[in-house]
From TrEMBL, chain A:
GO terms for molecular function: carboxy-lyase activity. Keywords: Decarboxylase, Lyase. It comes from the Bacteria. This is Thiamine pyrophosphate enzyme N-terminal TPP-binding domain-containing protein. InterPro entries: THDP-binding, TPP_dependent_decarboxylase. PANTHER family: SULFOPYRUVATE DECARBOXYLASE (PTHR42818:SF1), SULFOPYRUVATE DECARBOXYLASE SUBUNIT ALPHA (PTHR42818).
From TrEMBL, chain B:
It comes from the Bacteria. This is Thiamine pyrophosphate enzyme TPP-binding domain-containing protein. It holds the Pfam family TPP_enzyme_C. InterPro entries: THDP-binding, TPP_dependent_decarboxylase, TPP_enzyme_TPP-bd. PANTHER family: SULFOPYRUVATE DECARBOXYLASE, SULFOPYRUVATE DECARBOXYLASE SUBUNIT ALPHA. It comes from Peribacillus saganii. Residues 43-158 form the Thiamine pyrophosphate enzyme TPP-binding domain. Transmembrane segments: none annotated. GO terms for molecular function: carboxy-lyase activity; thiamine pyrophosphate binding. Keywords: Decarboxylase, Lyase. The keyword Metal-binding does not apply. The keyword Lyase applies.
Length: 174, 188
């Protein structure tokens, strides 16, 4: 039987394919492993890993400035590695960019330290003025792909980085 | 040893139609003082990100007529984000040319020592399997710029410079305008 995670990954893939990006940048993450593996095999999108999220944000911003469409998929801890680039470059220079973020921490998290960043992260992003949409069990899975396409469009229409963050472990709000 | 300003004057001659992204601080100020152009993107903050942005631009421009996308970064910035060297090595962007001005210090903040006094950045780049050209005088710098523009990258020019700084006004432009001009230049 398919798990919540399996179904969520299918919806995330569907959403990204509907956006039809030119480039897909990612940092490995076990929870969205199927998404990364899918785009690594895709012949429609150029997929590549980045070594650190800050570098990835810079590369994606350059792609966007050059008129092509990137999507980056990272863990929420990666926002900690890239928030200066997101705010003082992408946001300050009005570079449209969709960043997909998987949630760490919360129920189901076994790491004993990551919660210290992941739990306050939504407040950090709010204080930094980085617009973030959160997807979890409260939004029916069949709506997730639409949320991703709307996030990409909203980034273009409002000329800024948009984060779409999802909790695919299921369970209570983090 | 050459100054950054003299080297920038040389670079200015060869880059009228080449996108150039310059790092924050004195580098962008000196670069802008030579003449503002829409093919310039001046970074006003985010130290170390310039080479990464140039990788993305280089990739987006692969099927366009621009010969290169040039990133100008200092030794402090490169050592703050050496990840860009890893990405350049992995992605192999043919139009990416990184010029590292290495004065072994953080000149924009008062000349405090950087780590580059004990690290050879050209060798670091070579360690990432990148082609690296090390130059210490203006003639060699000019030759490296001219030849690098004409050949496939990725290439790193590691230019040792003195610690001289020109006095120039801060770049306090609205970054939105800076990005808009640059992006229009790239995509027109």
């Amino acid at each position: 039987m398919a798990t919540f995670r399996d179904l969520a990954c299918e919806e995330i893939i569907k959403g990204i394919e509907k956006v039809n990006p030119d480039y897909f940048l990612s940092i490995p993450c076990s929870t969205v492993g199927p998404v990364i593996e899918h785009f690594e095999k895709s012949d429609k999108v150029i997929s590549f890993p980045v070594s650190r999220e800050e570098d990835g944000v810079g590369i994606a911003a350059g792609i966007s400035l050059g008129g092509k469409l990137p999507i980056m998929l990272i863990q929420d801890t990666g926002i900690g590695n890239s928030i200066l680039a997101i705010t003082t470059f992408v946001q300050a220079y009005h570079v449209p960019m969709l960043i997909l973020v998987t949630r760490r921490g919360g129920f189901g998290e076994i790491n004993s330290a990551v919660n210290l960043f992941s739990e306050p992260l939504p407040r950090i992003l709010d204080d930094a003025g980085v617009k973030t949409f959160k997807l979890d069990y409260r939004l029916p899975l069949k709506e997730w792909s639409t949320a991703i396409t709307q996030g990409a469009q909203y980034a273009r229409d409002t000329h800024r980085p948009i984060i779409v963050m999802f909790n695919i472990k299921g369970g209570a709000e983090q | 040893m050459m100054s950054r300003f003299d080297a920038l004057k040389v670079l200015f001659k060869y880059t009228e139609n080449i996108p150039v992204i310059s790092s924050c601080g004195n580098t962008s100020r000196e670069w802008a003082s030579l003449g503002r152009r829409d093919n310039h993107l001046y970074m006003v903050d985010t130290m170390g990100l310039t080479p990464s942005v140039a990788i993305g631009v280089s990739m987006a421009l692969e099927d366009k007529g621009f010969k290169k996308c040039i990133a100008i970064e200092g030794d402090g910035g490169v050592l703050m984000n050496p990840n860009a060297l890893a990405s350049a090595a992995y992605l192999n962007p043919k139009k990416w040319l990184l010029i590292v001005f290495d004065n072994e210090c953080f000149a924009s903040t008062g000349g405090q020592c950087s780590l580059a006094g004990r690290i050879n950045i050209a060798q670091v780049a070579q360690g990432f399997n990148l082609e690296a050209i090390q130059v210490e005088d203006l003639d060699a710098f000019e030759h490296a710029v001219r030849t690098s523009i004409e050949k496939d990258g990725p290439i790193v020019i590691h230019a040792k410079i003195n610690q001289e700084n020109q006095k120039n006004p801060f770049i306090n432009d609205d970054p939105v305008v800076l990005a808009h001009k640059f992006s229009q230049f790239l995509t027109q």
